[in-house]
Amino acid sequence: MKTVHLHNRRKEASAGRSFARSTVSYPLQWHENGPEPEASAIVETTPENVESLDMRAPRYTSYPTADRFVEAFGPEDYARNLAARELQPAVPLSLYVHIPFCAALCYYCACNKTITRDYSKARRYIEHLVKELSMVDSKLSGDRRLLQLHFGGGTPTYLNSEDLRSLMSAIGERFSFSAAGEYSMEVDPRTVDEEKLDVLRETGFNRLSLGVQDFDPDVQAAINRVQPASLVESVLETGRRLGFESTNFDLIYGLPKQTLAGFARTVEAVIAMRPDRIALYNYAHLPSRFKAQRLISIEDMPSAELKQDIFRMANDHLDAAGYEYIGMDHFALPDDSLANAHRTGRLHRNFQGYSTQPDCDLVAIGASAISRIGSCYSQNLKGVNEYGDRVSQDMLPTQRGVELSRDDVLRRAVIMAIMCQGEIDKSSFEIGYLIDFDQYFEEELQALQPLVELGYVQLEDRRVLVTPIGRRKALRIIGSHFDRYLQQHQSRSRFSKVL
Known about the structure:
The chain is an alpha/beta fold. The chain has helices at residues 9-16, 47-51, 75-83, 119-139, 161-174, 194-202, 217-223, 229-242, 260-273, 304-320, 337-343, 384-392, 406-421, 426-433, 437-440, 442-447, 449-453, 468-473, 475-480, 484-487, and strands at residues 93-99, 101-102, 114-115, 145-153, 176-187, 207-213, 246-253, 277-282, 324-327, 330-332, 348-350, 353-355, 361-365, 370-373, 376-380, 398-403, 423-425, 457-459, 463-466. It has a 9-stranded mixed sheet, with helices on both faces. Strands 14-15-16 form a 3-stranded antiparallel sheet. Helix 6 (194-202) runs parallel beside helix 8 (229-242) and helix 9 runs parallel beside helix 10. The longest helix is centred in the first third of the chain and has 21 residues, at 119-139. The chain is globular, with a radius of gyration of 22 Å. The two termini are 42 Å apart.
């Protein structure tokens, strides 16, 4: 087989991409609990530091990660990529809508949010969302099938029923909903009743994601989010009665005041409620970056050893209860579509986490929202006022982004294969990208040796295989070895630890 290198990757790594690096860093937009910020850096991998998991790595909801976006990429670049979809007219769409408003502050949260009880701010924001949607619609070409829709925040259920109907109507006028699509809403159980859940179902939502975090009263008080288990159970039962197809619970370990026994009670209560999916997130305590987290006393934080004990305990309980481990953080019941996609190799990953849907282009609207169209990423202005001002001027609110090189596209595919399938089929990459895999990734494969010694990875002649224990303990670390940007920098201090 004839092979070629994608340009000269070593030269490209040092000189080929000459744009200025942005120093601005935003938290990513998905999940109410506040996903960890993506940043770049690396430390040497050794059996000792991997075994202790004293390492930091991105979550890889994108590649390159969001800290690599640059302000040299602007509205014109985003518009050009929207129009270029006509070159691949059959690629379906995913839509993300960011609702930043919350009525109260949760101390752990790292999301882009605005705390207010002045609902008029939300109404003006909805007007701006619809206007941005119209501008995107005027430039967007290609397939209008919407296979995935996600409302995140903030607290999307902050919106009243009238505005939810209005916004969903505007979306429905511009996109075609698929009968097999996944349409989900992040829900703060404290903000919904049966009437609002009925509106969500009526307007097309078929999945709910409930922010649970922890049922322990002491933990809830420490993070300023008090919601009894009975309230969550009531919302879950109402959602099931109204016909929602799937429900996810978000749990967080590593929160202040958490104990092994206390979180065990939370996990057992969750198992008794039997949600279809469970996301078990590691809390990233970064008070230097997120002011709300400064309200958490460092003395209340569990030790690294206790966090690992809590993580292992939760995994053991969920395994015993019949939940299948899908990949980083995620579990699902065996009959859930996510578990089926995992078993059949059809799992995908994007800014909305793991998905059963095929790899879609992603249009994202709202403050700080990140789109992925073709081979580019584009992020909107972060501030609600700045975002609204730009949209009011009939301009796309793009602040920064990045155009992917061929090397970026290749590495994105490799990292997503690790994160979703837990293996790399070398032959498929050699055929698809005209490379000799072992030659192209010679240094990366050598760097995996400490993980091989620990039993986390198997290096076979035609495959790189992540073992079951590697999927649990080191998936992010394994993926990071193929991240060219991390190999160029020497500090991972801006990442959260893997555990």
